[in-house]
Amino acid sequence: MQQKIRTKFKELFNTEGSLYTSPGRINLIGEHTDYNGGFVFPGAVDKGMIAEIKPNGTGKVRAFSIDLNDYAEFGLTEEDAPSASWARYIFGVCREIIKRGGNIQGFDTVFAGDVPLGAGMSSSAALESTYAFALNDLFSLNIDKFELAKIGQATEHNYCGVNCGIMDQFASVFGKAGSLIRLDCRSLEYKYYPFNPVGYKLVLLDSVVKHELASSAYNKRRKSCENVVAAIRRNHPEVEFLRDATMEMLNEVKADVSAEDYMRAEYVIEEIQRVLDVCAALEKGDYETVGEKMYGTHQGMSKLYEVSCEELDFLNDIAKECGVTGSRVMGGGFGGCTINLVKDELYDDFVKKAFSAYKEKFGREPKLYNVVISDGARKLC
Question: Which one is predicted more confidently, 380 or 116?
């Protein structure tokens, strides 16, 4: 991929620039906990975006996407926003840096990526983090890593129409090989935990479906959580998020909230605890407990939060039948991937069975991604 980028850059701009990269991410456990003030547990992966960049001494950005075979040129003022959606990610990063007082000029760039699109591994965060990190370095802006992650998040909010949390950009910037990161979504405190599952593979199985329910269902579930917090606060005014609530508090208001809202809150309270349990297990190298908690998350997302779907439940059932250590839906739900912690000796059998059974049931094969936990945003050369 690097050579392809280098060749295209030389062809377009007749010079050479510097290479930067940022990764996509997985989240081992902790889904729908972010907006409830809880914990998430992501890690950067060995798939990401790579960009070659060189300042061009003008007020213009000249950008080429190898994957889309598309070129865009734009200025750096608010009125210069490009029409191509991919170019808006780069433009947004530039604008967010400028808003923070960063003095940047025009540049030439070519980029490509190997983060699978639509698999819930955050290709957009990888793209934003690549450019935030690169521009900070090229123009000697001295922006700290947290602010780089926030620049990516603000790009999504203000230029791409996605009101996302901080997890994806945070993992892309702060990733560390051999470690997952527990991020407290309320305080933004974080801690690295060792993740070296010797004898295991971390495997994503992409269901290759995305059901349309996702955005409206997300908003409904968020509202359910807020309803329950409001009910609990009447007795416990200190409770700001479901992260502050216990099952005892939830049971106190069982008669005051709908059965649906109760189920949603039950899942979130249990999931926040599962993240903490997984952290404790990893400190002991106890991957069996990690796997057990992953299955618990899938069960909760399927039956209590109701954001799974037939295809994901099917893949989770196959994992269980094959003796896979841990498996769950990864991401918001209604499609996308399952993340699986698989013993090396079971890997071939699991993949074979998953592919054949899924094809027989749904008429198409899933996609397979083996991932390794890797470093975050960095300069390559």
Answer: 380
Decide if pLDDT at 213 tops 60. Answer: no
- Alpha-helical segments (H) within 14-112: 85-99
Confidence of residue 352 (pLDDT cuts 50, 70, 90): very high
Reading across the β-sheet that carries 326-330, which strands appear in turn?
326-330, 335-343, 200-210, 367-371
Is 168 tagged catalytic? yes
- CA-to-CA distance for 206 and 119, rounded, in angstroms? 6
- Per-residue pLDDT reduced to its tens digit, 140-195: 999 999 999 999 999 998 998 877 788 899 999 999 999 999 999 999 999 999 99
pLDDT exceeds 80 at position 119: no
Average pLDDT, the chain: 94
In angstroms, the Cα distances linking 340 to 39, 96, 181, 324 are: 20, 37, 18, 7
Q: What is the DSSP letter of 254?
A: G
Task: Please say whether the beta carbons of 18 and 53 come within 8 A.
Answer: yes
d(CA 141, CA 136): 5
293 vs 285: CA distance, rounded Å: 14
**Residue 36 contacts residue 243 (beta carbons within 8 Å):** yes
Per-domain residue ranges for the chain?
A: 198-368
d(CA 351, CA 203) in angstroms, rounded, equals 9
What is 198-368's CATH topology? Alpha-Beta Plaits (3.30.70)
User: Would you say 326 and 290 are in contact if contact means Cβ atoms under 8 Å apart?
Assistant: yes
CA distances from 351 to 205, 269, 313, 370 (A): 9, 33, 16, 11
Q: Which two tokens stand for residue 321?
A: 């039948």
The C-alpha atoms of residue 273 and residue 293 are separated, in whole angstroms, by 10
Q: Which of 46, 67, 137, 168 is catalytic?
A: 168
